[in-house]
Write a structure and sequence with these properties.
By secondary structure, the protein is an alpha/beta fold. It is built from 8 helices and 5 strands, in the order E-H-E-H-H-H-E-H-E-H-H-E-H. The structure holds adenosine monophosphate.
Length: 187
């Protein structure tokens, strides 16, 4: 299974990606997690990425695309993966298409989670208390949602046009949402 999971910040992508990762036995690859790991370990990549991340801006495509290409070439990514947080703009869709074409693979589905803005803001506020992410400040949250609307939401039409978009309500019990996604994907 080669899957994307998409949706606005706070909709529960990471949580559902973990569920799908366990269910299908495929790695959960989150570009945000890769960046945060590098920031925590003070790598050059982390230093470069943090200046963008803290402001709620996208890390430049060149850097992000390279990280994804390297990660998808690893051994554990041969039988499938679920990509979380990538692609986020049209250039990244193109880069991913290129990587997949080279590997002779194609996406099975793009899972989209939806929720209204009040729900998203409340979830991010709670997460900020628990995780203390550097980009969960009110300013960065607003910026990230705006970037999502402008750059990422239009990509859904692209994948809808390819006939692989699957939309799900992201509000509700975690396990029920996971079951709905899995039964739709297994059909
Ligand atoms: P996330 O955990 O997916 O919300 O990502 C946290 C932050 O990492 C984002 O706000 C961006 O600054 C950066 N980031 C993650 N994925 C990407 C991507 N595909 N392209 C550019 N920046 C990204």
């Amino acid at each position: 299974m080669y899957l994307l999971i998409m949706g606005p910040q706070g909709v529960g992508k990471g949580t559902q990606a973990e569920k799908l990762s366990e269910h299908y036995g495929i790695p959960h690859i989150s570009t945000g997690d890769i960046f945060r790991y590098n920031i925590k370990n003070k790598t050059d990549l982390g230093t470069e990425a943090s200046s963008y991340i803290d402001k709620g801006e996208l890390v430049p495509d060149e850097l992000t695309n390279r990280i994804v290409a390297d990660r998808l070439a690893m051994d554990d990514a041969r039988q499938g993966w679920i990509l979380d947080g990538y692609p986020r703009n049209a250039a990244q869709v193109e880069a991913l298409d290129g990587i997949l074409a080279k590997q002779g693979r194609r996406l099975d589905a793009v899972v989209v989670l939806t929720a209204g803005k009040p729900v998203l803001l409340e979830r991010m506020r709670k997460r900020a208390e628990i995780e203390g992410r550097s980009d969960d400040t009110p300013e960065a949250i607003e910026k990230r949602l705006a970037v999502y609307e402008k750059e990422t939401a239009p990509l859904l039409d692209e994948y809808r046009g390819r006939g692989i978009l699957r939309e799900f309500d992201g509000v509700g019990a975690i396990d029920e949402i996971a079951e709905r996604i899995e039964s739709a994907l297994n059909k």
